[in-house]
Amino acid sequence: MKHASSDLDIRNAYARDASGVELVPEFVARPSSAEETVELIREAHAERIPITTAGGQSSMTAASITDKGLLLSLRALTNTLEVNPKTRTVRVDAGVIVADVRIAAAQQGLLFTPDPTSEKESTIGGAIACNASGARSLRYGATRRHVRALTVAMANGDVVEFRRPELEKNTVGYAMAHDPVDWFIGSEGTLGVVLSAEFALLPLPVHSIGLAIPFPDEASALAFVIAARRSNKVHPRCLEFFDERAVAIVRDAEGSALGADGTCLVYTEETGDDSNPDAELPLDEWLQLAEHHNADSHDIRVYDSEPALLEARRLRHAVPATLNERGARFRSAGGRKVSTDWAVPFPLLADILVKARAHADAHGIEQAVAYGHAGNGHPHQNFLARDAAELHRIEAVVEATLRDVLAVGGTVAAEHGIGKLKRRWLPMQMSSMQQGAMRALKHELDPRGLLAPGNVL
After folding, report:
1. Residue 357 has pLDDT above 90, yes or no
2. What is the pLDDT of residue 256?
3. Contact 344, 352 (CB under 8 A)
4. Are 261 and 271 in contact (CB under 8 A)?
5. What confidence tier does 262 reach under pLDDT thresholds 50, 70, 90?
6. How many CA within 13 A on the CB side of residue 289?
7. Ranges assigned E (strand) in 47-153
8. From residue 247, how far is each of 65, 215, 263, 321, 442 by CA, in Å?
9. How many helices (H) and strands (E) does the chain have?
10. Which has the closest alpha carbon to 264: 374, 397, 402?
11. For labelling alongside 340, which of 4, 63, 96, 279 has CA 20 to 30 A away?
12. Which of 240, 220, 217, 239 lies closest to 230 in space, CA to CA?
């Protein structure tokens, strides 16, 4: 391609993401503006060259790497980051880092709610591509809920503006066609290239406090999560679970005194009742709830300032960061970290985790590190495959677990998307009719099939 590089060193620099897989693209392009991006898309379309877009390449599913055609890096699309306090919105280019949007909004007294754990590495375009969520999605929901408008370059290079309708009633056509903004959120680059987006913002909470609550066992911790979800006296914006393996990683990696040996942990943040934001936070109610579920109330850690909350977030990030490092050691032997993001109705989480661990035992696999969004019934199980044979056995364990997950109305992927690695499991959840509807939309928007080959479908 005339406007892309085929230099091997450059191509190798874009051959990995957080999935542990390596795919070397044929070309790499690094546009610095929307106009340059559109020119590249038009060139690729004319030459029938596949395009895979990438941002910070923090994908857990190999969605942001490819060995086919052009790797289009949008990291440099950072010219626009405009917060409007009057309308409580922010307009931002696709390459802007998620954490930078949160900081810019906070400086105006506003809250940007999408909060993937990798917020300091992930870009806005990537967050939109996989409908990113995070700990605080328990209160605020995933990225989709907050996107107001998108600017998208279509497969042929045409640029289209999509904005959510503000209608309260609409009976024109099929519901799936009412709001095209939703087509692109979570589409993992298969339907168009997002150039920029507008998000709705919320007021910053008046009060915020974090609590790390240790429990003697997993059953007590997960029962506490269910009780907190059902309580009308507390208002958690996250309920994050860490099994004893995850707690040990934080303790070892960060030199933290977090939790005693052999304990599990639940981390929550209380921001008060949205209908009465100035009221005192219900800390006594949290303590009573914790004690009722056998928590070690004398070892509860409190994070009562913004710097302290950021420190708690950093400790949480130590778990996936450490496992990513460990998994990378086994890449040369055909191994890697294997991360799940299945979800079930939250009251059923404990039962499914028991079954998941039984599958691992039955296949002779070392137990996964389990942590994450228990409040949404959505943990992450992280396995380490030391070679290709062990990787095969772990994938069998994951598939067996997913069958249990689907049997109780769960999903095979709650926040990381499908990408290339989980494509085999999409038909377990979606009927041929649903897949056919997706393929029809793909064909309508990308008739040559050039966008993100191998992702999702």
Report:
1. yes
2. 67
3. yes
4. no
5. low
6. 25
7. 51-54, 70-73, 81-84, 89-93, 110-111, 147-153
8. 31, 11, 7, 14, 43
9. 14, 17
10. 374
11. 96
12. 239
378 torsion bin: left (phi>0), alpha (psi -120 to 50), beta (else)? beta
Span 328-347, average pLDDT: 95
Helices (H), 156-214: 181-184
Contacts for 389 with CB less than 8 Å, ≥ 6 apart? none
- Residue 253 pLDDT greater than 80, yes or no: no
| 70-73 vs 27-29, strand pairing mode | parallel
Distance separating alpha carbons of residues 154 and 385, to the nearest angstrom = 38
If you average pLDDT over every residue of the chain, what do you get?
95
CA distance 119 to 155: 28
Q: Quick one: what percent of the chain has pLDDT higher than 90?
A: 90
- Sign of the Cα torsion 350, 351, 352, 357 reads positive
Q: How far apart are CA 31 and CA 23, in angstroms?
A: 21
pLDDT at site 3 = 83
| Residue carrying the six token digits 């066992």 | 217
Q: Cα–Cα distance between 271 and 279 in angstroms, integer?
A: 10
Residue 153 confidence (pLDDT): 98
Query: Taking a C-beta distance cutoff of 8 angstroms, is the pair 188, 454 a contact?
Result: no
> Rounded to whole angstroms, what are the CA distances from 235 to 210, 229, 238, 280?
12, 8, 9, 12
Q: Where are the alpha helices (DSSP H) in 48-159?
A: 98-106, 124-129, 137-140
CB 214 within 8 A of CB 265: yes
pLDDT in the model for residue 117: 87
CB burial class (10 A; 0-12, 13-18, 19+) of residue 441?
middle
Question: How much is the CA Rg of the chain, to the nearest whole Å?
Answer: 22
Structure confidence by residue, pLDDT tens digits, 369-380? 999 999 999 999
Distance CA 229, CA 409 (A): 19
Query: What is the Cα–Cα distance from 103 to 112, expressed in whole angstroms?
Result: 8
242 near 264, Cβ under 8 Å? yes
Q: Which of 9-13, 75-79, 117-121, 241-245 has the lowest mean pLDDT?
A: 117-121
Q: Measure the CA–CA gap between 93 and 107, rounded to whole angstroms.
A: 19
Nearest to 349 by CA among 225, 211, 213: 225
| pLDDT grade for 275, boundaries at 50, 70 and 90 | confident
pLDDT for 277: 81
Q: How far apart are the first and last CA of the chain?
A: 26
- The residue behind tokens 């890697």 is 336
Residue 124 tokens, joined: 């806005």
